[in-house]
Amino acid sequence: MRSIRRKHVFAVVAVAAIAAAFGVTAATVRAGSGMPSSIGKGEGRLNLIEWTAYSDPSFANKFQKLTGCKIHRQDAGSSGEMFALMHANGGGGGGQYDLVSASGDASLRLIYAHDVKPVNIKLIPSWKNFLPAFKSPPHNTVKGVHYGVSVQWGPNTLIYNTKKVKPAPKNWSLIYSKKYAGHVTIPNNPIQIADAALYLKKTKPSLGIKDPYELTQAQLNATVKLLKRQKANLKRFWNYAPDEEASFKNGDVWLGAGWPYQTLQLQAAHFPVKEIVPVPTTGWADTWMLASKAPHPNCAYQWMKYVTTPKVEAKQALVFGETPVNPLACKYMNKMKKGSCKGYHLNEPSSYYKKIKFWKTPIPQCGWTKSQSCTDYKAWEQAWTQVKG
Amino acid sequence: MAVDAGALEAGSPLRRARLHVSGFLWRRRWVKALALLMPPLAVFLIVYIGALAALVVSAFWTANSFTATIEHTWTLANYRLIFSTSQPYLHIAAVTLGIAAAVTLTDAVLAFPLAFFMARLAGPRTRVALFVMVLLPLWASYLVRVYAWQTMLAHDGSINWWLNKLGLPDQGLLYTNWAVWIVLSYVWLPFMVLPVYAALERIPDSYLEASADLGARGFKTLRSVILPLALPGLVAGSIFTFALTLGDYITPLLVGGTDSQFIGNVVYDFVGQADIPFAAAFATIPMLVMGVYLLIARRLGAFEAL
């Protein structure tokens, strides 16, 4: 008798739980695919997965004071690590994380894995002032739905030692040639395949490469072949930005692919380096994306609103060594550091942004052939392992 | 104190309870043993063996290529990829094993004379001084020491400076497998010196005297008496140096070049790519290698020397 009754109780509880779950789901669906129409009161806490210093105290402390949202940070060392953190514990940030500062090589993956959810862009007032290239970029906006708000970007640049590399390089071809064999470095990142594809697009038109992030198997194979040949000229693959700086400083590396950040750091240390932004080049752009199980959505929206305001954009750009998406930040940048708006390419004409191919996660869906014939990110990762092996 | 003494007076309830418990434990010894062993045993079984079991099991699953969700269907696909000759994984495993073997051999050659001097020739003061010198590097972070080697091995580093002083040409040591070999040999050397020292110290003087009495010269004594008796110590030390090198991934990352991928680096990459099953599958390779290694080491008597 007793056990049967217990079963009964259990069944009743289970039914009630399922009903409650359905009820909740129905409610959120009714509220317009879960997007809020206004920002409510903060929950007192905000959990971020971020690139180191993306919520630097120099601007985050004021946010905490203004909103009462206490920031808890989880630093990530790579895009893969960010994706893994967001995808752990059932995905969607595991009910723990609210926002992730994903770069373009992870953002589409997060969207298709349902780890992030749509964001009501109307709640971010600065958005209308953004550079057009970052309002609805393909790496964070799918079919007109925004999965986050762009925050900062930067071009991939060619850094070179002015004493060793003469004459100054004009384009990327030098890192694929034998001229400086044994003194070249490139990032240890599968997305580097796109750089090689962009180079092949120009030098080998017969391959028919249209988009460096949308490669067919044959195009990917040709790119891998180029990268394998390039490997013989490389001193090393760099993993962390300070690591690349060290290779330049200790004289082992003379030229390589990097970011404006490394160039400025090396120049600040009075090391003789310069950088060029070859045309065309690749670039990265970061997005604060909202976790689909974000436990503090109001604080998250307040953060997205705050970090895109011109003054904060300027501060973050100078702390991290990158470029704001909000051009109104220009005058604040110049006020904080003379000439920095130009130094970080925020004053370029709109044609400039068309020359930069921003990181985008490779997916099977090819935009230019309208078919599923493209290689996905997994294939890129495997190809990258092949290149390094 | 006074309160305590009062509580323990004969007839007080607390004292009676204590006597009851201790009597029970005395009558049933196994309960005592179980209570004592339970916590460490539970930790060992759940945390240690449990994690290993999860690793071995997930090696036979796969991760969805785009969403990275783990698909719980049994497959050998990961192992097929590892052992495929068109893939780089066998080469990476070979590089790792090769450097682990080279580091072990180097440490054995360096540690033996040092340990011999410490155990049998040095006076007490010199011995203490040498011990401190061997152990001192372990007090500084591993990372700091690897970075120190980075600056020494660099193109504009101190090693090339000395080579130039001696009239020799620059060596591009940093970012090569040579650098990985040198740094790992340095980092793990203390783990070889200590067991070899312990083994050499245990050899009774009378054995060496007997060897001399029978007409053996120094070299013959070394070969026929000292080395066989020191072998368990060498093997015990090699377990550390070999296993630690096999599992390392930071040194290759910081001082290695384009051909310095270790098994650990691939595992790290795949964890970052959220492909845990493949990472697990590749991680079982060093586990298997170490298993075989330990079996051989036991045959050679290494575990009596620890």
Low-confidence stretches of chain B: none
User: What percent of residues of chain B adopt helix (DSSP H or I)?
Assistant: over 70%
Radius of gyration of chain A, in Å, reads: 23 Å
Q: What is the gyration radius of chain B calculated from CA atoms?
A: 27 Å
In short:
The complex is a heterodimer of chains A (389) and B (306). Chain A has 389 residues and is of the alpha/beta class.
What would you note in describing this structure?
With about 400 residues, chain A is α/β, with parallel strands linked by helices. Chain A folds into three domains: about 1-30; about 45-150 and about 285-360, Periplasmic binding protein-like II (D-Maltodextrin-Binding Protein, domain 2, 3-Layer(aba) Sandwich), CATH 3.40.190; about 155-260 and about 360-389, 3-Layer(aba) Sandwich (D-Maltodextrin-Binding Protein, domain 2), CATH 3.40.190. Chain A is about 40% helix and about 15% strand. Chain A is built from 15 helices and 14 strands. In chain A, the strands form three sheets. In chain A, strands 1, 2, 3, 6, 12, 13 and 14 form a seven-stranded mixed β-sheet that branches. Chain A has a five-stranded mixed β-sheet with strand order 9-8-10-7-11, with helices on one face. A two-stranded antiparallel ribbon of chain A has the order 4-5. In chain A, helix 3 runs parallel beside helix 4 and helix 7 packs parallel to helix 15 (about 375-389). The longest helix of chain A has 29 residues, at about 1-30. With about 300 residues, chain B is an all-alpha fold. Chain B has 14 helices and two strands; from the N terminus they run αααββααααααααααα. Chain B has two domains: about 1-45, no CATH class; about 90-305, MetI-like fold (Orthogonal Bundle), CATH 1.10.3720.10. The interface between A and B is medium-sized, with 35 and 32 residues.
